[in-house]
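[agent] plan:
  1. take the single chain provided in the ticket
  2. run structure prediction with default settings
  3. attach structure tokens to the ticket
  4. add a short note for the reviewer (M.T.)
[agent] executing step 1
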Amino acid sequence: MATMRDIVTRAYRKARIAGSGESLEAEQADEGNEQLNAMLHEWKLRGVDITHTDKGLSDTFPLGPEYEHGTVLLLAEAVGPEFNLPASFNADDFFRAIQAAYLTIDTVSFDKAVTEVPSKKERDGTLGYQWR
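[agent] step 2 finished; step 3 output follows
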């Protein structure tokens, strides 16, 4: 499993803030982790409630491996402008996939007056149509 540091490092490399194989400075890593935690909290406002609690750099990334790449791209897209680096990719599709994975549809119940309307009753008082 990836750590929060792994996600931050990959995002900084994707945004071209850090070079390939280059380690992040402590300040960069801490700032990136703050941004990653903030981004994961923000997802709740966008319909993705992962019940996130802040993680440290050495903590395990709280989502499964299928979410890592999309999260890296989303974080890279978020941090790039701070370094005047425009994103050369669009991470929006990944967020839509994450939203779809966390989509829940509540159970709906209807009042009897809506489901058993008078037009559905026969003269004998039974519901539905009587085939004769």
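[agent] step 4 note for reviewer: The chain has a mean pLDDT of 83.
[agent] ticket updated
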